[in-house]
Amino acid sequence: LTTQIISKGFTGRHGRAYLKPVSRHLVTGAHTVSDIDCAFCGNLLGWKYVSAEEESQRYKVGKFILETKKITTTPEWDPAFGAGLVESTDSLNPTMAPSKSVYDGIEFDSQDEDECEDLFSGLWSPGLAVRRKNR
């Protein structure tokens, strides 16, 4: 993700979403942040800046940091996965062969405002991205 992504709400695809504020001293000073964790594995993916003590750092408030090395594409949010129509591509379970999908290779485009809005409202999917681009 090469640009800032700004959330316009705290409701996800599966209901209300919460960001718990935590005070933390970062390289750029003292900030209050809310961690963003993976719903599947629980790993820390990034954080949202809630407040900053230093005036020079307040431009970050309301912005999100997603660590690109921790973000991966996975079919788990695909409705077909929930219906058991797509096999897991989990690297921890090598007994299952990776599935092929018509959406293989479709990635989130952080430059597209509509896709950013879809992502933070919990609606983004490869299928929706393809439909938007084909309009």
Automatic annotation (TrEMBL):
Pfam family, one: Yippee-Mis18
InterPro entries, A to Z: Yippee (IPR034751), Yippee/Mis18/Cereblon (IPR004910), Yippee_fam (IPR039058)
Gene Ontology MF terms: metal ion binding
UniProt keyword NAD present: no
Domain of life: Eukaryota
Sequence ranges assigned to domain Yippee in this UniProt record: 1-75
Entry keyword set: Metal-binding, Zinc
Matches recorded under PANTHER family: PROTEIN YIPPEE-LIKE CG15309-RELATED (PTHR13848)
Family statement: Belongs to the yippee family.
Protein name (Swiss-Prot/TrEMBL): Protein yippee-like
Annotated organism of origin: Aspergillus versicolor CBS 583.65
Upper taxonomic lineage: Eukaryota, Fungi, Dikarya, Ascomycota, Pezizomycotina
